[in-house]
Every structure is written in structure tokens, then in C-alpha cells.
TrEMBL record:
<dbReference type="InterPro" id="IPR045220">
    <property type="entry name" value="FRHB/FDHB/HCAR-like"/>
</dbReference>
<feature type="domain" description="Coenzyme F420 hydrogenase/dehydrogenase beta subunit C-terminal">
    <location>
        <begin position="25"/>
        <end position="176"/>
    </location>
</feature>
<protein>
    <recommendedName>
        <fullName>Coenzyme F420 hydrogenase/dehydrogenase beta subunit C-terminal domain-containing protein</fullName>
    </recommendedName>
</protein>
<dbReference type="GO" id="GO:0052592">
    <property type="term" value="F:oxidoreductase activity, acting on CH or CH2 groups, with an iron-sulfur protein as acceptor"/>
</dbReference>
<dbReference type="InterPro" id="IPR007525">
    <property type="entry name" value="FrhB_FdhB_C"/>
</dbReference>
<dbReference type="Pfam" id="PF04432">
    <property type="entry name" value="FrhB_FdhB_C"/>
</dbReference>
Length: 247
């Protein structure tokens, strides 16, 4: 494998082709954590229309991810600005300090793109993502916490455990315990901060809704208490007048 690419790819288009056009079974889906979340929901859904997916997907593998870039970045930064053709690019990776995007070429040369220059090509949904480490997948893999040339592998489900055990017995994996746990814990902590920031954003929206709809007040208060850990005020049972916002 050439490793992570950090470019958006239509995973579900390929999955549909594999299932409905090629009739494949025992499929392993390698994707970003957000796509792995969708796979988990599909497999757990009682909707019978999703049974073709449930019958075909055997394993979900998520790649560690801090953001996915639109393919336009290749054309506009690498091709036009740096004079590097698409065919020359072997892989894209994020530097350990996350300040640069590393561009490794097939001839061994390595170039870098400042993250601030690449950020405008990030998919919109990445800004609110709360899963860096593929928590919904059967297996999660990435370079974070691993020595050069190796990958960190996290088993997250019984299916993932069976896969790793069988692959190890067949000598298809070279397992070693030398993982930098501190790096993984830092990434998880950053994920928790982003998740909390998203919760505060949702609370702000809910509070605005409560101004127009007093029925939303109790839910807004519950969310406020949960985030700020403060006791709730008692609410009056009287109905708000037309000139009152209900607060």
C-alpha cells in the first residue's frame, strides 16, 4: 500500500458498484472515520432495503483522519503552483506536528505544503467531525503513534479481532508493541475538545430556537446544565405572554 492519501474519494459509489454491478461478497471497506460511521449504521439498521449491504460487507477499516481535502488541491497547488504532475505523486501525509502536508513522489523526493494553504480545500464537514481515530470501524489504522515505515493498528470490534488473529497466524502481519500511546491519547483529547465545541454550537442554536418556541426551553436548560455542570433554575408553569420570549 502507498499509505494514506487524504483526498476525498467516492467510497460508496465504489461500494455500490462492487455489490450491485459486480455481485461481490465478503467486502472490506477502507474509508475515513465518517464513512465508517455510516457503514456501522447501515449494518445495524433494521431497514430491509439495506440488506444487500449487510450481506456483503464483512469488515470496516478506518484510516486515522484529521481532515480530507478536495481533489482540486492537487490541480491548483501541486500542478499549477509547484509544477508537479499527478502521476508523480506517490502519497500525501500529514506531518507529525500537523503544520505541513507532506507530498512524497515516486522518485523519492518529498515536498511540503503548509497546512494553512491546504485548509481551504478541506471538506466542510471536517470542521465538525469528532472522530479522528475510526471509533466506529472494526479496525482503525494510521501512522500516528507508529515508527517510520509502520502503522498503528487499533482493534475495535470482535470482527476486527478475528481478522487480525487470522492474518497474524497466516504471517500476513508483522505485529510489534512499539506504539507511542501519548500521541494517540493527545489525538483522542483533541477529538473530545472538538466534540465539546460542537455541542456548544448545537446549544447556541437550540437557545435561539427557544426564543421563538418556549416549548424548547426545558431542552435548552438540560443541555446547558450538561455542558456547564450548573444547577437548573426552576421554571414557572405560567404561559409566556405575546410580548415575552419565555426566558
Amino acid at each position: 500500500s502507498v499509505g494514506p492519501q487524504y483526498l476525498w474519494a467516492p467510497v460508496f459509489d465504489a461500494l455500490n458498484e462492487a455489490i450491485f454491478e459486480r455481485g461481490l461478497k465478503n467486502i472490506a471497506v477502507v474509508s475515513t472515520p465518517c464513512a465508517a460511521q455510516a457503514i456501522r449504521k447501515i449494518k445495524a439498521s433494521p431497514n430491509t432495503l439495506l440488506s444487500p449491504y449487510q450481506d456483503s460487507i464483512r469488515l470496516s477499516i478506518a484510516v486515522f483522519c484529521t481532515g480530507i481535502y478536495r481533489p482540486e488541491m492537487i490541480e491548483e497547488i501541486l500542478v499549477k503552483s509547484m509544477g508537479i504532475s499527478r502521476d508523480q505523486v506517490k502519497r500525501l501525509d500529514v506531518s507529525a506536528d500537523r503544520d505541513e502536508l507532506s507530498v512524497e513522489l515516486w522518485d523519492g523526493n518529498v515536498h511540503s505544503i503548509a497546512r494553512q494553504d491546504a485548509e481551504k480545500y478541506t471538506l466542510t464537514g471536517c470542521g465538525s467531525c469528532d472522530d479522528y481515530l475510526g471509533e466506529s470501524a472494526d479496525l482503525a489504522v494510521g501512522t500516528l503513534g507508529a515508527p517510520d515505515g509502520k502503522s498503528t493498528l487499533i482493534v475495535r470490534s470482535p470482527a476486527g479481532e478475528v481478522f487480525v488473529r487470522n492474518a497474524n497466524q497466516l504471517h500476513l502481519l508483522d505485529l510489534a508493541p512499539d506504539v507511542d500511546s501519548a500521541s494517540l491519547e493527545a489525538a483522542s483529547s483533541e477529538k473530545d475538545r472538538r466534540e465539546r465545541a460542537q455541542a456548544f454550537n448545537d446549544l447556541n442554536i437550540l437557545m435561539l430556537d427557544a426564543l421563538a418556541d418556549p416549548m424548547q426551553r426545558n431542552e435548552a436548560i438540560k443541555q446547558f446544565v450538561r455542558l456547564y455542570r450548573t444547577p437548573a433554575r426552576s421554571t414557572s408553569p405560567t404561559k409566556a405572554s405575546n410580548s415575552c420570549t419565555g426566558c
